[in-house]
């Protein structure tokens, strides 16, 4: 079998650049195209050592890890913690792409390669593997970022009504500035099931609201005897507010059961 060295190096350069690019996107760091090209070139040229020098498996592993550290350092040049994260992410994406390429090769030939390199891999299969990996990993990245964003905006809030305390998971809706017009107190929208076992005998407030589409209505609410935020075992000062009840689920995944007004913080 003939191996065109220039083609092999260029293919590896493209794949390395793609993996470095994904790593930078995942870690949400600024990157230089030139630095990424140099980093990818280092990884590509190191392939020659793997192919033409008789190295033991142990030496190959050490060499691969060292090259990965060098590639990440050239690309981001940050503190050691970020470099370690970058190396882990780079290995994760390399394994994912390699697995997809092996699957495509197996799907084509019906034979799973063992203890060997897959070199005669067509451009079409390579690009297909890159595209599939990119789509798959981008979905994972977006999902993780969304989850982290939501987690950072969810607060544990303890509410006191008539001496009955309830702790709720409340999501901070940054676009919500709902207030009760008479008292001017901020309004927390809570699923009514949270307080279904609490005997609430308080003066009701009518809270008008309007959404972006122009639709509006009124919510019924009551003034709480106090509320405070719970964070890392510490309690914030007791605050005043109005809670309004809704009969629908506020979170499809059940991550929270209340919506905070921006003015409550």
UniProtKB/TrEMBL annotation:
Designated name of the protein: Sporulation sigma-E factor-processing peptidase
Similarity section: Belongs to the peptidase U4 family.
EC number of the protein: 3.4.23.-
Organism: Hathewaya histolytica (Clostridium histolyticum)
One Pfam short name: Peptidase_U4
Keyword set, alphabetical order: Aspartyl protease, Cell membrane, Hydrolase, Membrane, Protease, Sporulation, Transmembrane, Transmembrane helix
Catalytic residues as annotated in Swiss-Prot or TrEMBL: 173
Subcellular locations according to the entry: Cell membrane
